[in-house]
Write a structure and sequence with these properties.
Layout lengths: L14 H22 L4 H28 L5 H23 L7 H18 L4 H9 L15
Helix pairs in contact: 1-2, 1-4, 2-3
The structure holds fe (ii) ion (2 copies).
Length: 149
Amino acid sequence: MAFINWTSAFSVGTPVLDDQHKLLIALINELHATMLQKSTEEELHRIFQELMLYTESHFKCEEGLLRQACYPRLIAHHLQHMEFVDQGRRLYDEQIAGKRTVSMDLLVALKKWWSEHILGTDQQYVAYLSAMSCEAPGGHDSPALSLGG
Ligand SMILES: [Fe+2]
Ligand SMILES: [Fe+2]
């Protein structure tokens, strides 16, 4: 059984973001499995770094979509993302310096943060984005777009 199981409760209704969340969960599961196999520190650092890089690209994509939609709670959401990135960078530096390794405590903290973030903070934009997509251009006939005449 995987360390974190994807369920439909995690869905944010936007396929590109769901796919990214699934990949993030897969990377945490890979980190967990690799730790249990007692792999080398280098291998654990590599997966942790991949997780943090992918996290940053996901945050950028998610915030880009929210900015485009003029999401009113974007700043608070962005600050939560930044806090996670700062902590992750600090942990990675400590790992590289040999002060810390990937432990069960770290994995439990990752699982807790991601589950709470996707099920809490991310879910807050679901209804907003879905309402915005109904009003997106193309949903109405616009005389200005007519090329006839
Ligand atoms: Fe988010
Ligand atoms: Fe997200």
